[in-house]
Each structure stands twice: as structure tokens, then as C-alpha cells.
């Protein structure tokens, strides 16, 4: 593993040394799918460089794909192309979609996680991404803003949806994954609807 310092001075750990792993496509981050390619092409319009594209992709996923809990949408998505086509998903699904859009344009992107208090009680694992620019990883949270949440794309200090509170047994997980964590993906794939998923989300990694 390779370790880096993120902008919050937490040591991020690159699980896979080969940076190309963070550009790969798979069943979940299916960035060769036509809907990903078409969306990426649209997002490039009006931007000048990869930074502008990354910001546009982030804001698209944050703002144009409602978080299913905020929208009270019962559907569960997990594959990036399905998230874009259905325009719904929880934090993990939206992170998969953003990772796919960024990797589609050769921007290394990792999946990473936090443990946060769950609105159904207890704790749940929250999903976000880290994007690599300027020789470093920068965490971004595309879950979608709402009252009390004002996440933004930033390479100069993190602007995440939430900062974990250790007093509430919340935490940042430092590992940067090239693929979705299996316990997270397993819960998403097994859930028939969001109400069921809310009871089976992993509480920790």
C-alpha cells in the first residue's frame, strides 16, 4: 500500500500501488457504457481542461442525480450506468457514477468511505470518492446537498458533506479502493428496495 496525506492531514492509503487500477472499468464502474460516454461528452462542452471537466462531472452527479433518500425514491441502483439512466441512488451509487465519469476521461479516481451516524439509528458506512490531481488525492462527496449539507468540489481543503465526530463513534476510513468494498456492494446488490437497504447497510468496514 502507498500512503498520502489528504488536505485534512489524514493519511490516505492507496490500496493498490498501480495507479492504472484507479482508471479501470468493471461491472460497477462501467465507464465504457454508451450512457457514460455520452454524458462525458456533454460535460466536456464549455470546459477547458481536465480540472474543469472533473468539477463539472462532480456537480452533475451531486445536483442532477437526486439522492434516493432525499427524493423518497424506493429504487436501489449500484452500477454507474444505471445510476445515470435512472437518475437516482444513495451515496455509494452516486460515488460509483462519479468515479465512472472521471475514469472515462483518464482521471484516476478511488472509492473511499466514512462511518457516520445513520438516520435510521446506529451507524452506517457512507461512500465518497477521491480524485487525483497535482500529484495528490483529494476527497470529494457527491451525495447531494440539502439543508445542513454544503459539499463542494475542492482541491484546496476538503468540502465534504460531513466531518466525522469521534465522540459519536464516527470515523474516516483512510483506504482508497480501486473497486467498491465488497460488503457495501453486497448490500446494494441484495436489496430489493431502499427501505430494505436502510436496514442492511454495513455499520462498519
Automatic annotation (TrEMBL):
Domain of life: Bacteria
InterPro entries: Papain-like_cys_pep_sf (IPR038765), Transglutaminase-like (IPR002931)
Gene3D superfamilies in alphabetical order: 3.10.620.30
Residue intervals of the Transglutaminase-like domain: 38-142
Protein name: Transglutaminase
High-level lineage: Bacteria, Bacillati, Actinomycetota, Actinomycetes, Kitasatosporales
Amino acid at each position: 500500500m502507498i500512503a498520502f496525506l489528504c488536505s485534512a492531514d489524514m493519511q490516505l492509503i492507496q490500496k493498490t500501488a498501480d495507479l492504472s487500477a484507479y482508471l479501470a472499468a468493471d461491472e460497477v464502474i462501467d465507464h465504457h457504457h454508451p450512457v457514460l460516454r455520452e454524458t462525458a461528452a456533454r460535460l466536456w462542452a464549455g470546459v477547458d481542461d481536465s480540472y474543469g471537466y472533473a468539477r463539472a462531472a462532480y456537480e452533475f452527479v451531486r445536483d442532477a442525480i437526486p439522492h434516493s433518500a432525499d427524493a423518497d425514491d424506493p429504487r436501489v441502483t449500484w452500477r454507474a450506468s444505471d445510476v445515470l439512466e435512472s437518475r437516482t441512488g444513495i451515496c455509494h451509487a452516486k460515488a460509483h457514477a462519479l468515479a465512472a465519469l472521471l475514469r472515462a476521461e483518464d482521471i484516476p479516481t478511488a472509492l473511499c468511505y466514512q462511518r457516520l451516524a445513520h438516520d435510521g439509528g446506529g451507524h452506517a458506512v457512507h461512500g465518497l470518492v477521491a480524485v487525483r490531481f497535482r500529484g495528490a488525492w483529494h476527497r470529494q462527496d457527491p451525495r447531494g446537498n440539502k439543508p445542513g449539507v454544503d459539499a463542494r468540489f475542492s482541491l484546496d481543503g476538503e468540502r465534504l458533506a460531513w466531518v466525522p465526530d469521534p465522540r459519536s463513534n464516527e470515523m474516516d476510513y483512510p483506504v482508497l479502493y480501486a473497486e467498491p468494498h465488497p460488503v457495501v456492494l453486497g448490500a446494494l446488490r441484495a436489496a430489493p428496495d431502499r427501505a430494505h437497504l436502510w436496514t442492511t447497510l454495513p455499520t462498519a468496514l
